[in-house]
Amino acid sequence: MGPEKAGIHMRSICYVLAVVCTTVMCRATASAQSVQPAEWSHATTLSGFAGGAANGTRTGPSLGGAAGWEVTPRFALDGTGTCTTFGGGADAFSASMRLRVRLAGHRSVDPFVQGGVGLYRAMFDSSETEMPEFYRRRVEPLPGELTGMTFTDPTLVTGGGVSIFLNRHFALRPEAEVTFVLRNGAHVVTSLLVHAVFHFEEHPVTPTVRR
């Protein structure tokens, strides 16, 4: 084989190798794009929720709302306000700030845990209203009936649940939480709630498949 033919042969081999390498790289890039979800850095959320709560002596319905800031795809801060009607002259309002941590991330069904601090305001029509012992022992033994009684105490809040994403903007978030009301001891309030959450920014949670 002469030098000229050898050179042509080598050029042909290099051309074939270049085509093969380019094809493999293009396929690898397309494959990676088909399984990787689009990233997002942060998001703002707004939710309304409903459910029920128990304070040790009574149970009642709860309603409330929350505004949130998803700082990263895994960590979020929520500010919540909840009104609960226990009936029989007993009501409560709670407000809290909590940190929520997603356990999976980029899943259409995504579990989480959360915890935070806040305030709990318990309201009773009078000293004759049925009260948990946590409040009863704080009522001064004065003669006659006391009316319009309120107690405001700090709280620790913990809980968890699961986010069920319906699309890139809407999710349902059932959760269970335990509130520890603190004042010379602890009073426990448990709640089961379902949030309807709106994400203002697009929120990819499943892989984007490109055909």
Could you please describe the fold and organization of this structure?
With 211 residues, the protein is α+β, with helices and mostly antiparallel strands. 18% of the residues lie in helices and 54% in strands. The chain has helices at 3-35, 133-136, and strands at 43-54, 59-70, 75-87, 90-102, 109-126, 147-165, 170-182, 186-199.
Question: Could you give the count of β-strands?
Answer: 8
Structural class: alpha+beta
Order of helices and strands: HEEEEEHEEE
User: Compute the gyration radius: what is it?
Assistant: 29 Å
- Portion of residues within helices: 10-25%
**Strand percent estimate:** over 45%
Assembly context of the chains: single chain
Q: Can you summarize this structure?
A:
By secondary structure, this protein is of the alpha+beta class.
Q: What keyword list fits this structure?
A:
211 residues, alpha+beta, 8-stranded antiparallel beta barrel, 8 strands
List the helices and strands and how they pair.
Blueprint: H1 3-35, E1 43-54, E2 59-70, E3 75-87, E4 90-102, E5 109-126, H2 133-136, E6 147-165, E7 170-182, E8 186-199
Antiparallel strand pairs: 1-2, 1-8, 2-3, 3-4, 4-5, 5-6, 6-7, 7-8
